[in-house]
Design brief:
The protein is an alpha/beta fold. The chain has a single domain, classed as 3-Layer(aba) Sandwich (Trna Endonuclease, Chain: A, domain 1), CATH 3.40.1350. The chain has helices at about 5-25, 70-80, 100-110, 120-125; strands at about 25-35, 40-50, 55-60, 90-95, 115. It has a 5-stranded mixed beta sheet, with helices on both faces. Helix 1 (about 5-25) packs parallel to helix 4 (about 120-125). The two termini are about 25 Å apart.
Length: about 140
């Protein structure tokens, strides 16, 4: 998949998340540069949610077709875990699309507690779980 098509795929899922956040009254900002990645590069988050109990950085990783995207998730986790000068309390990496290797997705969900499937994240938005104190909104579901 070329870069332009991949960007549009990611934007499609980001737009759905934005619509849900607006619909359910969340306070958020989009495309916020905050802190530094471990190698010193700029860190831009898809969303920063400001809730009752915490501020949560959200990064959407989309994969429409199979390919080299499988390394996106572990790298994103590493960047969030090692980030410096961060102004958020917690983070979520939302994986979206049908192009992911199912075994790797299961491994991500088991290995990385902050990784969540797109559908589960939308459900958490709908049920206001992101407004709960930290640690109470993991809510992983099995891969369909």
């Amino acid at each position: 998949m070329n870069g332009n098509r991949a960007r549009k795929t990611g934007e499609h899922f980001q737009n759905q998340i934005e619509e849900a956040l607006n619909l359910y009254g969340y306070s958020f900002q989009k495309q916020i540069s905050d802190g530094r990645r471990p190698h010193g590069g700029r860190f831009v988050h898809d969303f920063i949610l400001t809730g009752k109990f915490s501020t949560i950085a959200i990064e959407v990783k989309a994969q429409k077709v199979s390919g080299t995207g499988d390394e996106k998730v572990p790298y994103a986790v590493l960047c969030y875990e090692e980030a410096t000068n961060k102004a958020y309390d917690d983070y979520r990496i939302v994986i979206a699309g049908n192009g992911w290797n199912k075994n790797k997705v299961l491994w991500y969900l088991k290995r990385f507690p902050k990784v969540i499937r797109f559908e589960t994240f939308l459900e958490q938005i709908r049920t206001r779980q992101l407004d709960q104190p930290l640690g109470n909104h993991r809510g992983q579901v099995a891969l369909a």
